[in-house]
Amino acid sequence: MNQDPIRQKIRKRLDDGTLPREVPLLTKSSWEQPGAPPAHMKADSAIGLSRCSGCDAGGAQVTYRFADASIIRFHSRCHRIWEEECQRPRPEDKPRSPSRPRADARRRGR
Predict the structure, then answer these.
(1) How far apart are CA 108 and CA 75, in angstroms?
(2) Number of domains making up the chain
(3) Backbone dihedral angles phi then psi of residue 58, each to the nearest 5 degrees
(4) pLDDT in tens, 20-77
(5) Which of the pair, 11 or 2, is modelled with greater confidence?
(6) 51 beta partners
(7) How far apart are CA 50 and CA 93, in angstroms?
(8) Per-position DSSP letters for 15-77, written without gaps between them
């Protein structure tokens, strides 16, 4: 599958909150470590059978189980794209350029 449509799906899902923006640490139980998102990777009997959270195709190979019992699964290429997209700045995080003073404010300053 072409990666551009996958990247767009993952971006949309990150924006609408259906995919988490923080990649959990790869530990046995990351919620035991301060500051780590509450999730971990684990062997999963559904690997290869479940749909990917990134592209919706079957055959997901990477599974994250979160402390709130939610599960996300990815193909390895979709997992890599998700990790990359999680590192991109959010549109609302980008610094805004200072706005130009309005014309009436400039006139008052004379």
Answers:
(1) 60
(2) 1
(3) -75, 165
(4) 988 876 544 444 555 555 565 555 656 667 899 999 999 898 888 887 888 899 999 9
(5) 11
(6) 58
(7) 34
(8) HHTSS-SSPPPSSS-GGGSTT--SEEE---TTTTTSBPTTT--B---EEEEETTS-EEEE-HH
Of residues 10 and 110, which shows the higher confidence score?
10
- CA dist 44 and 74 (Å) reads 12
Q: What pLDDT, in 10s, does the model give residues 51-62?
A: 999 999 998 988
Give the predicted TM-score (pTM) of the model: 0.65
3-state secondary structure of 37: coil
Question: ∠84-74-39 over CA atoms, to 5°?
Answer: 80
Length of the chain: 110
In a domain, 106, yes or no: no
Instruction: Tell me the two tokens of residue 75.
Output: 């193909």
97 located within any domain: no
**DSSP conformation class of 73:** E
Would you say residue 13 lies in a domain?
yes
Q: Does residue 16 sit within a domain?
A: yes
Nearest to 15 by CA among 75, 108, 80, 91: 91
